[in-house]
Amino acid sequence: MADPARERRLGFVLGVGAYATWGAVPLFWRQLQGLDAIEILAHRAAWGLLAFALFVVATRQVPALLATARQPRAMAILAGSGLLLAANWGLFIWATLSGHLLQASLGYFINPLVSVALGVGFLGERLSRRTLLAIALATVGVVWLAITGGGVPWVALALAGSFGAYGLIRKVIAVPALVGSTLETAVLAPVAIGYLAWLAHRGEGALGHSGVRTHLLLVATGFVTAVPLAWFTAAARRLPLSTIGFLQYLAPTGQFVTALAALGEHLSRRKLVAFGFIWVALAVFTVELVRQARAPVQRAPA
Question: What is the per-residue DSSP string for the chain?
Answer without folding.
Answer: ---HHHHHHHHHHHHHHHHHHHHHHHHHHHTTTTS-HHHHHHHHHHHHHHHHHHHHHHTT-HHHHHHHHT-HHHHHHHHHHHHHHHHHHHHHHHHHHTT-HHHHHHHHHHHHHHHHHHHHHHH-----HHHHHHHHHHHHHHHHHIIIII---HHHHHHHHHHHHHHHHHHHS---HHHHHHHHHHHHHHHHHHHHHHHHHTT-SSTTTS-HHHHHHHHHHHHHHHHHHHHHHHHHHHS-HHHHHHHTTHHHHHHHHHHHHTS-----HHHHHHHHHHHHHHHHHHHHHHHHHHSPPPPPP-
